[in-house]
Design a protein that fits this description.
The protein is mostly helical and about 180 residues long. Helices cover about 65% and strands about 0% of the residues. The chain starts with about 30 loop residues before the first helix and ends in a 7-residue tail after the last helix. Bound molecules: fe (ii) ion (FE2) (2 copies). One fe (ii) ion binds next to helix 3 and helix 4.
């Protein structure tokens, strides 16, 4: 099955979701604010999977998808500001990887549930799980290694960045269980 924007980044596997929780939520980058982002994204993906698998694909699905797109963009922005301010030489490649996922999510996620096609939904979710695991373990590890000896400076940078008021945003979305 062809997914929109599949040509930008081929899925690591396809043909149905594995139902295995990705490991990325347990991989620390050494900064609690960014580790929290990863855990929130991990839970949001689990909620999306549950809604696709067991819920009636009602109005909360659209809000969960909206949250994922919004929060992913925020998280990427935080990482990019950190990498820029700490002069990480892998910023351009890392941002390119983020931009590919931003484009894929914008193009593909709203289709979930709309098509009423379980194979499409499963492939899209499997792709998301694979991408996040690969990105967090390999690419996020790149800046995590870089800041390892400059954690105080990195923490000051990340803690100074604006964050959305998560509780109020969550209260208006399906992701209200944190
Ligand atoms: Fe990243
Ligand atoms: Fe990340």
């Amino acid at each position: 099955m062809a997914l929109p924007h599949q040509g930008l980044l081929a899925p690591a596997r396809s043909g149905g979701i594995t139902r295995l929780a990705p490991r990325f939520a347990g991989a620390s980058v050494g900064l609690s604010a960014l580790d929290l982002d990863h855990r929130i994204l991990h839970v949001a993906l689990g909620i999306l999977e549950n809604e696709i698998s067991y819920a009636a694909r009602g109005e909360t699905l659209g809000r969960t998808i909206g949250f994922l797109i919004h929060f992913t963009d925020e998280h990427f922005g935080r990482e990019e500001r950190l990498m820029e301010e700490i002069c990480f030489d892998g910023l351009a490649a890392h941002k390119q990887s983020h931009d590919i996922m931003r484009a894929w999510m914008e193009a593909s996620l709203p289709e979930i549930g709309e098509r009423r096609n379980a194979h499409y939904d499963d492939d899209a979710l499997a792709y998301l799980y694979d991408w996040w695991e690969e990105h967090s373990i390999r690419e996020d590890k790149g800046y995590a290694d870089f800041i390892f000896h400059r954690l105080d400076e990195a923490k000051r940078i990340v803690d100074s960045l604006p964050r959305a008021d998560l509780p109020s945003f969550l209260a208006s979305s399906a992701i209200s269980g944190f």
